[in-house]
Structure formats: C-alpha cells, structure tokens
Design brief:
alpha/beta; 47% helix; globular; five-stranded mixed sheet; 8 helices
C-alpha cells in the first residue's frame, strides 16, 4: 500500500510541480526578449503556488526608463496583489537583483528569490538574506552565456548604464 502512495506522490510531483529550472527558463525567455529589443538581457517571472502570475524583462533602454529592471517589470505586471498573495510568491530572475529590485522584494514580503547568474554581476543578495529572504543561486550556464554575449556585443551600452549608478551595484553602508 505504501508503494502505491509513493508512486502517486511521484506522479503528482512530475506532472504538477514545476522546478526552479523550468521557471528560470521562462525568465530566460524574457531576458532574450529584452536582448532582441536592444535592451539589457535580464528577465524575471513571479510565481505563486507553482503558477506564473507575471513576467517581465529589463526595459531601461527600450523605454528610457530608470526603474524598469526585469524584476521591477515582473512585480509591476502582477498588478496590486495582497499581502497574502506576495508571501506565497517566488521571484525568478536571470541576474542577481540590484538594491532597488531587492528593496521591492523586501517591501512586498516576497519570501524567496531564485537567481540565474550572480557571476556576471553581484547584486544585493546579502540585503535580501539579511531581511529573511531565501536566496537560491543556480548559476545557470544559459543565463551566464546570454549576459556574456550582451557584454561582448554592447560593452559601451553597459558601461553607460553602470555609470548612471556610480559604476557599482554594491550597497553603500
């Protein structure tokens, strides 16, 4: 009898539970969308109860925006959720989130952030952790490769964008 229950549980997990890699691939699609639009390739998805409730991608260059990072775009696209919704969410982002995006995660009490790449750029992960957010870093090769491609093809754009924030994404103490 126990083997039958275990078998049904495994079937349930396979068909109904999606993995971090699954959601990161959706975020990566958003990053590619930004890249193809001439923007910085950062994508994000907001997931609640194992379902995507919003997607976003970096639109700084495309929209001449100062705040539409991929994570901010995904949070904005979710609409005005309730506290009870936010605390059931996970944010997936292809690149380590900056201080602004991490602040939004903390403000809205999103308990978990899954990061595709923190080798290309280290964001405010310690800020997230210090505020009780669970941080998982996948260092997904596809995320790393896409950002590396962007840096190789658009180094002047990237330098210009970084100069707008003092050439660093580190937290000032």
């Amino acid at each position: 009898m126990m083997n039958i229950i275990n078998s049904y549980f495994i079937i349930f997990l396979v068909f109904f539970m999606k993995s971090d890699e699954y959601f990161m691939n959706i975020a990566l699609q958003q990053a590619k969308l930004s890249f193809n639009q001439g923007g910085i390739p950062i994508g994000a998805v907001l997931v609640k109860d194992n379902k995507i409730i919003s997607k976003g991608h970096n639109r700084l260059i495309q929209d001449s925006s100062v705040i539409f990072h991929g994570e901010m775009d995904a949070i904005e696209n979710a609409g005005r959720l309730n506290y009870e919704d936010y605390i059931k969410c996970t944010l997936y982002t292809t690149l380590s989130p900056c201080t602004m995006c991490s602040g939004a995660v903390i403000l809205y009490n999103i308990p978990k952030v899954v990061i595709g790449d923190n080798t290309s750029l280290m964001g405010a992960e310690n800020l997230l952790k210090d505020n009780g957010v669970e941080v998982i870093v996948l260092n997904d090769k596809k995320c790393i490769d896409l950002f590396d491609k962007y840096l190789q093809e658009n180094s002047e754009k990237w330098i210009k964008e970084l100069s707008k924030v003092g050439n660093t994404t580190k937290i000032k103490k």
